[in-house]
């Protein structure tokens, strides 16, 4: 697919920025759209430094259709990788309309413009959250989906259903839905990584902010689950492996018709305390923690069966928990305040 461009929405964000790096390495020409609501322009400057390439960037909102049309008019776009959206579970409960408007409305806007401009290749950031409470483990793509427990998750499920309907109506449309498990880690350079605004919702950013001294201690949400040590188990996947999953998906598009769904995870689950231990080893820092009540909506264990992605995309996560923690720590220790103040 080289020669033409791939539009990356949300390309200044955590997973998007890492994917842009891998796209350049793989010979794709990314063009980034991001409204910077949850990202800094600095992230793309660093992507340019890593890749030695200038990345065309548009500070634009998915809801601004003329701005989307202008990008498709300016560049010869052959595919879209769609990361942009809102992703904070708690905020989605408080502001469901914002989530439906941006995630669902933003995606339908984008799809309308793609079809108007004759662009039919689409890779979408979905989430293991669409599976809801696991009915069996490991979770395969045929696990029932849709019983989401929060509005964020429902937006992902609704978008998946829209894409399935649309790929029936639009025979040229080729869609890969990637259901991510728990992305963590950072690029080896330590120059890009996850930079949440405010108090982190997710485990790894919280642990790394404790290790770097920004927060006093971690709250571990429950120690009475039916797991190896009573704490919640998740399938953590290195963000660079995840990025490479998007390269595999882009390459797959030319061979498929309709809509394909793949889990992107490692297939191995680790408990909260196992993650804390691995992080302490990787960083050489103590991570003080206290056990508190369970967090509403959490499952005991969630991990993927990633074998379909290996079979059909030729993709397999290669980086283990130690490397995830080492890379996360390199980013956090080199950038204690994230992109804002080093
Ligand atoms: P992120 O917030 O770092 O990236 C999303 C980007 O989209 C941000 O840069 C933000 O500025 C941009 N954006 C938001 N609303 C926009 C709008 N209306 N118009 C244009 N740009 C907009 O998040 P991330 O962790 O990189 O996640 C990327 C995608 O992957 C999201 O769709 C998210 O739901 C999905 N996902 C993330 C995880 C995770 O744990 N990080 C897990 C599963 C799925
Ligand atoms: C992991 C484990 C917590 C924070 C969320 C979203 C999901 C997806 C990925 C986008 C759990 C425990 C956490 C803390 C803790 N995002 N924990 N103390 O809940 O698996 O998934 O992010 O699609 O939709 O729900 O990830 O990192 O929040 O939690 O003990 O301060 O760490 O209870 O067991 P989760 P997480």
TrEMBL record:
Pathway: Carbohydrate metabolism; galactose metabolism. Coiled coil: none annotated. This is UDP-glucose 4-epimerase. One of its GO terms (biological process) is galactose catabolic process via UDP-galactose, Leloir pathway. Keywords: Carbohydrate metabolism, Galactose metabolism, Isomerase, NAD. It catalyses: UDP-alpha-D-glucose = UDP-alpha-D-galactose; UDP-N-acetyl-alpha-D-glucosamine = UDP-N-acetyl-alpha-D-galactosamine. It is an enzyme of class 5 (isomerase). PANTHER family: UDP-GLUCOSE 4-EPIMERASE (PTHR43725:SF47).
